[in-house]
Amino acid sequence: MFAGFLPFNELITSDGKPFETELELIVAIPSVLIGIVGIGIAYLMYYNANELPNKAAVLFKHGYKWAYNKFYMDEVYLFVTKKVIFRYISAPIAWFDRHVVDATMNLMASVTQNVSFRIRDFQSGQIQKYAFVFVTGVVGLAILLIYFWK
Amino acid sequence: MDILTLFVVIPVLTITAILFLQDMKHVRLVSAVGMGIQLILAAILIFMYLSARHAGNTEEMLFVKDYLWYKSLNIHYAVGVDGISVAMIGLTSIVVIAGIFASWEVEFLRREFFVSLILLATGVFGFFISIDLFTMFLFYELAVIPMYLLIGIWGTGPKEYSAMKLTLMLMGGSALLLVGLLGIYFNSSPDGGPLTFNILEISKITIPMSAQRLFFPLTFVGFGVLGALFPFHTWSPDGHASAPTAVSMLHAGVLMKLGGYGAFRVAIFLMPQAAHELSWIFIILTATSVVYGAFGAIVQKDLKYINAYSSVSHCGLVLFAILMMNKTAMNGAVIQMISHGLMTALFFALIGMIYGRTHTRLINEMGGLMKVIPFLSVCYVIAGLASLGLPGLSGFVAEMTVFFGAFQHPEPFYRVVTIVAVSSMVITAVYILRVVAVLLLGPTTNDHFNHLPDAKWYEKISVVTLISAVAAIGLAPLWLSNMIGVSLQPIVTKILAISPF
After folding, report:
1. What are the extents of the domains in chain B?
2. CB spacing of B400 vs A109 below 8 angstroms
């Protein structure tokens, strides 16, 4: 439907030139022929009510059963999505995201909060304490620079 | 006054008008008028830009203005746009106006809500027009701060936790980014001239490789945090789930795009050698984002969480495509930013509207909504189809361009990760169709749902605006693709000089 409106071969390009496509007759002709044969058989079987469909169902018993059940594609889809993807891929990923990735970020926040809580007493408001820490730091730096700095 | 500065001045004037309003009823009207003018201005800018290009103007940036505002560090208020930033401005204008209409029923602290929302938009517009790294960073911060208030005050659920988490993580990203930007600044003149923050001037020189190796990862990760780069994405699901509707729309639709745009405009453009050398590390992380986000969305029960994880996947695709460093993939990245911005804003708008009626966002508590609220339901289906990449809608054009460009890379590693990333399209289809089936089809699960009203006029304006844009890009993508492509040329030329593939 959009083939005419969406010039996709012109859009998907890295050099400004349309992407070259060509018609593969080896693929196209058999595909079209199979489609036409299918339409013809359907016409014969269903356009006017007749016994042909029932006879074909008996003759191709197993094939009919598979086709009738849509080749069990729904069952396959539900098995793959619900039993495999949901249970064994998505659920573990969601668990990992919540309990590992997210928990790591929360842990960093908790550690920061706890450390802040523990060191809050440094900010006591007592000028004597600040002076003591300041002088100690200056003496420490002086010792470092005089005796150890080469 | 130049047209680009108007994109900052109009929101500021709108905020000023709101602050002086006596009647609270007029707040949303003034907001809609102000942002409506902004939308018209964006349309005029697009027209002026295309006209200038059509007339043969081949300058890298158009409508450039430059005013010195901090001499000692050579910081300028420098603005200019190319096709990429024009496209992003267009996106922002559409999402903001849709967000205003989606917030029509906000009653609590209405004035403060709209002021914060428009302040956020001001930061985003300012970011997209800036070509001075420092000014760009200031606008980036301006966009992040109101987010904390908007989620913390007007949010739902564990809103204080979510707001704090989002803000701290984005601020952590900002810290990395600031170091990266200062690193670029101090290496912007290897020959000893004056240092500069101007992107165009820096792009003309080659930053020493030793500096690139240090500052590229900082800059890329700094922007990547906002772009929901794995494993720094965890602010996104909680933040989106707790945010009010319009804030989710703006955040996922526009603010997360700042990450992709910045990673592209600053990290890759200014440090292409390091980007080329280190891209494999970030490609692994972004491909993980793409698949991980999609798988993560499948098992979520809350509609907002589903969309938030979906955004991790789609925004991961933006960063993934940028790192492929060829024109097709980069073009796809920009279209994906716009496409995702529109459709995720649409999703969040619809989720907010559905939540406003059903008072639940849990999909297993809902069902059969198509019969009772057909307009909103059909819009939800359209948003879903756009998200899973149906031809005719923007998602198809964006994702196909990204994957096509990524697969053009000749090295097997890049092709293998592309195949891995492509698998996300199938996973997206699984969770989108599942949600549509559970939420909209079948019998209604609650008698209360049988009496739900469908969309009101302002809600229709919001969603129709977004759907129109999604369909317009899907049906006629070439004008956008060409506009972006022309602007990508100088960037790609610079990249090809160091990596000819």
Report:
1. 3-498
2. no
| C-alpha distance from A69 to closest chain B C-alpha (Å) | 21
Asked if A100 and A52 sit in the same domain, the reply is: no
What is the CB neighbour count within 10 angstroms for residue A95? 11
Tell me whether 0.95 is exceeded by the ipTM: no
Q: B207 exposed, middle or buried (CB, 10 Å; 0-12, 13-18, 19+)?
A: buried
Residue of A nearest to B401 (CA): A12
Q: Tokens for A44, please give them.
A: 């014969």
Euclidean distance between CA atoms B398 and B342, whole angstroms: 12
pLDDT tens by residue, B58-83: 888 899 999 998 888 899 999 999 99
- Measured between CB atoms, which of A1, A11, A86 is closest to B298? A86
Q: How many Å apart are CA B165 and CA B147, to the nearest integer? A: 11
Render pLDDT for A2-28 as a digit per residue (tens, 0 to 9): 445 556 666 555 555 666 667 788 888
Q: Does B76 reach chain A within 8 Å, measured CB to CB?
A: no
**Within an 8 Å CB–CB cutoff, is residue B313 touching chain A?**
no
How far is Cα B111 from Cα B131, in angstroms, rounded to an integer? 32
Whether the pTM exceeds 0.90: the reply is: no
**Cβ–Cβ below 8 Å for A101 and B477:** no
For B117-162, how does the pLDDT look when each residue is reduced to its tens digit (9 = 90+)? 999 999 999 999 999 999 999 999 998 889 999 999 998 888 999 9
Q: Quick one: closest CA in A to B476, which residue?
A: A6
Which of the listed residues A68, A83, A99 is the one where a domain comes to its end? A68
Which range of residues forms the domain containing residue A75? 70-150
Q: Which of B299, B326, B478 sits opposite A7 (nearest CB)?
A: B478
Buried b (16+ CB within 10 A) or exposed e, B37-47: bbbebbeebbe
Same domain, A62 and A86: no
Q: How many domains does chain A have?
A: 2
